[in-house]
Amino acid sequence: MNTYGYVSGNPLFSSDPFGLTEADVFFARYAISRMYPELTNNVDVYPSPLLQYTPWDGYALGESITIESKYAEKCLNEQEKEDLKNVLLHEYLHVYLNRQIGAINYLYQDTISSGQLHDWVREKSAKIRGYWNRTVPIGTPKPVLTDFPKR
After folding, report:
1. Where are the beta strands (DSSP E) in 30-79?
2. CB 25 within 8 A of CB 72
3. In this structure, are residues 72 and 22 in contact, taking their beta carbons and an 8 Å threshold?
């Protein structure tokens, strides 16, 4: 039994008396996995304090996603929860493309196509968020993932 699980095993640098920070990340992942389980299967998510020094809130590398530690350090308000879900969805889509075409092909194809794959990630993420938030007409089908640009 991990008696410091409420602070991810680090009681010296973190506090979370109600255990809600881990729950925020869990529920964001759960929301995505309910709609697209193929995105979240076997993908680990880690917080990193180093991302606060970059322009990104997260990045994907291989089968893992790193998110800015602000998402795991405190209980999130509703806007922060939505931001976390958006960051995770965006990075899960990167992992998905990596799985579909391979890391080297992904980097090569995205480079020679002037970011076409990353544009697809941004556009697909926006479509999925619109579907979640019901800003698309009723009856609109769930966005598919298989329409990414191919060489």
Report:
1. 44-48, 58-61, 64-68
2. yes
3. yes
* Interval 114-150: pLDDT, tens: 888 899 999 999 999 988 888 878 888 899 999 988 7
Is the CB of residue 24 less than 8 Å from the CB of residue 70?
no
Closest CA relative to residue 26, chosen from 88, 113, 90, 97: 88
Spatial CB neighbours of 66, under 8 Å, sequence gap ≥ 6: 45, 46, 47, 48, 51, 58, 59, 60
* Residues 84-125: tens digit of each pLDDT: 999 999 999 999 999 998 888 888 877 777 888 899 999 999
Neighbouring C-beta atoms of residue 151, cutoff 10 Å: 8
CA dist 66 and 20 (Å) reads 19
* Identity of the residue numbered 102: G
Closest CA to 45 of 99, 1, 8: 8
Closest CA to 83 of 44, 57, 103, 120: 57
Encode pLDDT of 23-62 as tens digits. Answer: 888 889 999 999 999 999 999 999 888 988 999 999 998 8
